[in-house]
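Students often ask why we bother encoding 3D structure as a string. The short answer is that it lets us treat folding as translation between two languages. Here is a chain of 273 residues written in the first language.
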Amino acid sequence: MSGRTIAFITDLGLRDDAVGMCKGMMLDISPSSQIVDITHEVAPFDVQVGARYLKDLAEYFPADTVFCCIIYPETGTSPTIVVENERGQYLVGPDNGVYTHIMDRSGVRRVHEVRDERVQRNPPSPSFWGRDVVVACAAHLAAGFPIQEVGPERADVAKLTESVPEVQIGDGYLRAAIALVDVNFGNLWSDVTRGQLREAGLAGADRLEVRMDGHTHQWPLVSTFSEVGLGEPLAYFNSRDELSFALNQGNLAEHIGVRRGTEIELVDARVHE
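And here it is in the second language, the structure alphabet:
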């Protein structure tokens, strides 16, 4: 039997040997597993961003995938859990809410708390619980260890309280917040869906008036970046179908100094001309 795929996400970075050490342990325990790096550049301790990166991933990975997450500010103290979702995938990580969004999207069949010493590195280091408990358990599950034997079943798991305000919809306007900054390109992503834009009466707008951080901007709502000139701003729906803002071949976050959590208000720009 070949090992399950392991999808690996951490806040460890790649400037030292931590990720390599973890992957070596995975392959030692489950030599036939394929390890897929989601990212190791989550900002240290940022469970909220890690949860958002994981949000949509279940549908992109095979049903036998083991998701392994080390974003573990509580190392050595917080329990480690294994969640089996409705696709049959396993989510292994700290019980700190990092799997909140992916569980909401992919469902939950059962949850077990990791207790069995057979799926841990013994004795585990309290300062690197992620390696010695999370990674070790994920690798053992990938190699075929039965989920029901990792430890007792649990009825509940920690869930995150959303770090940005919920979308508020009015007649001709919509209030939301920047939920995530695309760190490579500086694009600003919100939680606003096409349906919510339609509900607010803004779906027909070809330009949006965007108010944020004490400033008002008027940006065209387009399908893709090349519909505006080089270095010009735009509003668009990203690949996750959420309303977003960008500069064509530029970094909007740096250009206007906006960060995650910044509140925004949207109206049809034509009404305010």
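Translate back mentally: Helices lie at 18-29, 47-54, 100-106, 129-142, 194-199, 252-256. Keep this in mind for the problem set.
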